TrEMBL record, chains A, B:
It comes from Desulforapulum autotrophicum (strain ATCC 43914 / DSM 3382 / VKM B-1955 / HRM2). The keyword Phosphoprotein applies. It comes from the Bacteria. This is Two-component response receiver and regulator protein. The modification 4-aspartylphosphate is found at residue 84.
Length: 516, 516
């Protein structure tokens, strides 16, 4: 097949660019700028079989300043310009030097002046005043001299390009911190790691890199769990590494695990890092061309950097989870005392979160409400058991005492500056207020009741109705909906009732997920 | 004064190095390696008045391969070597090229071959096989050619050095994340920021940089508070920026605040960053020489990067503080129910932390115990008020019920995987065990009681004794010490009693800090 043949040809022509793996069909671009066609011809002949670092050259021909500008606008990786001074104007060449360095801000391209009229552009002045890299008079330019000048220039270009690629890669790593350190979950973090890695290596011009990649780490237990994966390992997230890697890959992985921090084998990379907090992370990818030293170094730095991010996120997660569990424990303790079940507070939190999201509250506030709402009955700690556990109907006086729990809760929580506890204070205070002003303790109505209070009221009542209590059976959804329709605009905020009716399946789902 | 005169002379000689500010007394180092003294002499004459980029050259003379190696070992910033091929051996020069590039791994130094016997080292072969930057035959080397070769070489060296300095600065910024993201407090973070900044700029060869520096940020309120400061602003930590900056500096600061992200004015830098979380950070320093473009760019990147770190730390701090307050609230609620005061749990936490530290427990575990210990009586939630609040002596049966609070607390907490809650479960379960085995609920003795339990026992009893309760007066320190000496090895772990006796002042201090 023709296409196949072409591909093979390209593969044979593999040519390398500095700082990168071999890229098919690439070569060093040299721009010959001269108004004499002969010069182009001679240069072409002299460099016909020329190679540097295993790569041929591609000559681009410019006959005027305009040509040069047009070519440089089109081609972003010209390595060298062999530049005549006198073209359409006496100083065309020198003006181009300024244009390239100052307007294009291109410091990488090597500029070699070749002048036929040294009198018009004296060597001493030109090399001093202009940011060029070599100066020759055409009269003294032998094929050997051209060969030397081109080789020295391409070598310098390659060095600069390599360090520059490295610099860009490092900047990209720093930049990547912004997104990585923002991740809320390990899988979001790990996916970010693979995305950023691709970006970092792409800068170095490798093609088709990291088609298959994987980030794994210990997350508490002994196993290394796949947190994110691409290509061949797609959909392997959550599995231990030994269930994903082939035996051969496991053997190489074992070497990394046993001490070698990084293993570059052909187009494959395995990098392990032991984090300060004692976790172990693994970064794997293949499908690249062989990585250059610069790229290997970038990958090494990145692997370590990512380890720091992993630690950071793990610590934050542990604290967030602890905070959540402590709050739930607190809520449960209070509810257990008033004979509610442990899952009551979890369900209330989920109902609140759902209502808050659909109501359009800022996501951070919605999360805060989710965390705070389990504390809504905290004030019941101050209600005597005799009243709290009274089997029959409460007297008016007893009910007045029960009602104090809203204010008691508020006073327990209000002094904290922490936003979750401030949210909890509002919820404790206002979750028995009613839309029509007939609630307690303040008798607030409509929007004077904080949205946190309005939401928690719905969540709390729905949970009580939809579950069996010692004094009542569980209500059917139909019966609850009937009541809610009636209470819309009386007990409850009508907007929240609309949300409830539209999303009732999700409320039922939450009940099923956290049964009594 | 002589010393003053000398300083002025140096200042007049200001000479610049690439990628840095002006550095007094510096020049471009060129190593001339040739076994013919005449060549050294001619080179010296030709370059006598030579300058590149406003800087003179300093010629270093080597007459053999050994000389070259010795000089390169001593001087780490040689820009160019003018290298003869045939010296003590026919290939001395070429062997040196390999030595420099491969053994010294020095890719920055420019190597120009100057050979008197081109036959011994043919140009084509040499430029192809060796990593050199130019090749000339001495016969064709005019003063002008030398001038061009030296200028082109120094220019290339300066470019490489600039990008390399930038690369190193970026690597350093990445490296700095490791320490910055580990900071536990804002002031530790801010101090780290200033330290790392110094390191990042030092790489670029500036001298006496950042003598005065300052890092400030909003930490909740409107004011920008100084978090760390050096030099002139030393000891200004904790103050708002307007109390620290002069009116002139405040005016420049205002410009940064009003929109200009970075302000480089002479040897002064003011950089502001608005973080994603809405905080604002300010980085200030002076006392540097004027910063190069590379350095300015590094500082800009660093300022942004530090903003990310600041956000990260602020978020973690908010969560940690919330967690702490929630736990304390939980502890307080339980204690209030059993008529203890709110500060009881705070003091117990502090006593535990002090004992744990002095006992030599791992700092992370000590912090964990501090957070967990307020939950020690959480099981009392299950004790009926009639018993909990009984004014007189408890019956044997009632005391048996009271004793259940240890196990109840354990069951409430034990199912969590979170380390703080696991710690709290141990504390709840074992804080009434006694060293001699006479405690409850399990009757454990000696090291069978977890150190967390042994520590909390001391802390809890000390707090009860040293404060007034409805059933007893506050005991004097003397009386407590007498009891503790008696109970060492009976109720309490003798090692903890030794610590208590040695640190008794600090226990009294904590009592004074958190009074009833």
């Amino acid at each position: 097949m023709a296409a196949d043949n072409e591909m093979v040809l390209f593969a044979d022509e593999d040519i390398c660019l500095p700082g990168s793996g071999r890229i098919p069909g690439k070569s060093w671009k040299i721009l010959v700028a001269d108004d004499e066609p002969d010069v182009h011809e001679i240069t072409r002949i002299a460099l016909a079989s020329y190679q540097f670092d295993g790569c041929k050259v591609e000559l681009l021909a410019a006959y005027s300043g305009a040509d040069v500008k047009e070519i440089l606008a089109r081609e972003n990786d010209v390595a060298l310009i062999l530049l005549d001074v006198v073209m359409e104007r006496e100083n065309t060449g020198l003006a181009l030097v300024q244009y390239i360095r100052e307007e294009l801000n291109n410091d990488l391209i090597r500029i070699v002046i070749r002048t036929g009229q040294p009198g018009k552009a004296p060597e001493h002045e030109v090399i001093t005043r202009y940011d060029i890299n070599d100066y020759t008079a055409k009269t003294e330019l032998t094929a050997q001299k051209l060969f030397t000048a081109v080789t020295a220039s391409l070598r310098a270009y390659a060095s600069l390009k390599t360090i520059e690629a490295n610099r860009q890669g490092l900047e990209r790593i720093i930049h990547s911190n912004a997104s990585l350190f923002e991740s809320r979950s390990l899988s979001q973090f790990a996916t970010g790691v693979l995305d950023e890695l691709k970006g970092i290596l792409k800068l170095n011009l490798s093609t088709a890199c990291c088609q298959t990649s994987l980030y794994a780490a210990t997350t508490g237990g002994q196993d290394i769990i796949v947190l994110a994966a691409r290509g061949d390992f797609k959909d392997k997230e959550g599995l231990p590494i030994q269930a994903v890697f082939s035996p051969e890959l496991m053997a190489r992985f074992q070497r990394v695990w046993d001490g070698e921090e990084n293993l570059f084998a052909g187009d494959e990379y395995l990098g392990g890092v032991q984090t300060k907090e004692g976790a172990r992370c693994l970064l794997y990818f293949d499908g690249c061309s062989t990585l250059s030293t610069v790229e290997q170094n970038l990958v090494r730095i990145y692997t370590t950097n990512v380890g720091i991010g992993f630690d950071n996120l793990s610590l934050t997660r542990e604290i967030v989870e602890t905070q959540k569990e402590v709050i739930y424990t607190l809520g449960e303790i209070v509810e257990t005392r008033s004979k509610e079940t442990a899952n009551h507070v979890i369900r209330v939190a989920e109902f609140c979160y759902l209502l808050a999201q659909k109501y359009g509250i800022d996501p951070t506030c919605a999360e805060r409400l989710k965390l705070a709402s389990p504390m809504h009955d905290i004030g019941k700690i101050g209600i005597p058991e005799t009243i709290l556990h009274k089997p029959g109907r409460l007297t008016k006086e007893e009910f007045e005492i029960i009602k104090t729990h809203a204010e008691t809760g508020y006073y327990i929580l209000k002094n904290s500056k922490r936003q979750i506890l401030q949210t909890a204070a509002i919820v404790a205070w206002q979750h028995h207020e009613k839309w029509d002003g007939s609630g307690y303790p303040q008798g607030l109505s409509r929007e004077d009741i904080h949205i946190y209070g309005r939401i928690t009221a719905v969540a709390d009542v729905f949970d009580a109705l939809s579950h069996k209590r010692c004094y009542k059976d569980a209500w059917s959804m139909d019966r609850i909906m009937e009541l809610f329709k009636k209470e819309s605009g009386k007990h409850f905020d009508p907007a929240l009732m609309d949300i409830f009716l539209a999303e009732k399946e999700r409320f039922v789902e939450i009940n099923e997920r956290f049964p009594e």
